[in-house]
Amino acid sequence: MRLLLLWPSGFVRVVVSGAAPERFVNLAARRGIPLWQLREEGHCIRGVMAAAHFLRIRPLARRSRCRVHVQARAGLPFVWRKVVRRPGLVAGALAALALIMTAGSTVLFVEVSGASAGHREEILAVAHRAGLRPPIPRFLLNGAALEEEVAASLPYVSWARLTFQGTLARLEVGEQELPPPPPPPTGPADVVATKPGELVYLLPLMGVARVQAGQRVVAGQVLISGVIPGRKGGEKETGPPRLVSARGVCLARVAYQAVVRLPCHEVVLRPTGRTWHGWVVLVAGKEIVLRGKVPFELYHTSRTRAVLGGRNGKPAVEVIRTTYHEVEPVTFVRTPGEAALAARDKALAEVLSQVPPGAEREVIEAEVEVRDEGATARVTAFTIEEIGRVMPR
């Protein structure tokens, strides 16, 4: 145990020989230089002393007419002296340590738990848009923002939580049961357009068609009426009209468009990876600021709340943590050709995000206008989809 305590400062094993080794031990004890593990072997005495005391024993050895030999050295100072003599070994060890730390804090795999098999791909796509793109270091991920994005983008997700286990990022979600769709109306109803488009196919199964193929319609326009006129006798209608629940197939060509303008010189705000947390406690309507001034000039914020105690739905204590993410302005310089390609790709991505999953894409048209100061891309996607919806009268 004693040697373990001496290891940080170092110790030496010594052999004391000469006319009176016992006198040397007594003189050292009087000067406050203790020796441990003393053992007499013939005319010599072996023991252990602190490395710092070894430089003080020369006068004592001279007075006792003894010689002190160092048999072994141990402890942190002697180990460190050997290490610094081999800079390649030190550099290799530091590089290996940095590699292990970097690899251990880098997300390589993503797992979704708590979601049904049919929803996992969609949840992964939303998480990918929010920044969870392996491989990525953990410090570049804004976990709170990603959780909010997943919960806000998907109606069937009530909450989301991001945890890490080594190189695995586990995204846990809680799915809520959506209310069943309302039953189709049994009373009189019309089929109306849910969005504008050019009608390409109309098949009334019940009711009377109010439009025809090739006609452009607007949202809310009646496509199939649930009012069937009475039978005609001669030139006059006989009998009252019949009210039915209209049904039918209404396929239309719908256009989705996105316009993106990109300058050749663009200044964007890029995260630096540095964050700072501000804490505010609300007690009985009073605000207590625990950390004040933000050390960043430019930043984005994300906020989380925690409620402690309370009655009748009113929290007793509310803790608000605001995370400030530092950003810095970065200037992108593009040629007009590069700006045109980037604007077209960005507009195409925006258009495809607007197209419903079940729609049949017919054609995609792109127009790009290039100027010296930048480029403008206009991308239009045409789809064939069902636009009719039964609406009670």
Strand portion: over 45%
Q: What is the name of the CATH class of the largest domain?
A: Alpha Beta
Tell me the name of the CATH homologous superfamily of the largest domain: ACT domain
CATH topology descriptor of the largest domain: Alpha-Beta Plaits
Total strands:
26
CATH architecture of the largest domain: 2-Layer Sandwich
**How many structural domains are formed by the residues?**
4
Distance between the termini: 91 Å
Q: How many DSSP H or I helices?
A: 9
Q: What is the radius of gyration?
A: 40 Å
Structure explained in plain terms:
The structure is a single chain. By secondary structure, the protein is an alpha+beta fold. The chain folds into 4 domains: 2-80, Alpha-Beta Plaits; 106-175, Roll (Ubiquitin-like (UB roll)), CATH 3.10.20.310; 190-249, no CATH class; 265-333, no CATH class. It has 9 helices and 26 strands. Strands 13-11-19-25-24 form a 5-stranded antiparallel sheet, with helices on one face. Strands 2-3-1-4 form a 4-stranded antiparallel sheet. Strands 12-14-10-26 form a 4-stranded antiparallel sheet, with no helix packed on it. A hairpin with a 2-residue loop joins strand 8 (157-165) and strand 9 (168-175).
Summarize the structure.
By secondary structure, the protein is α+β, with helices and mostly antiparallel strands. It has helices at 2-6, 21-30, 51-54, 58-63, 76-84, 87-104, 120-129, 143-153, 336-354; strands at residues 11-18, 36-41, 44-50, 66-74, 106-107, 109-113, 136-137, 157-165, 168-175, 189-193, 197-206, 208-209, 216-217, 222-225, 227-228, 231-233, 236-238, 242-243, 247-263, 265-283, 286-289, 299-308, 317-333, 360-370, 374-386, 388-392. Strand 22 and strand 23 (317-333) form a beta hairpin.
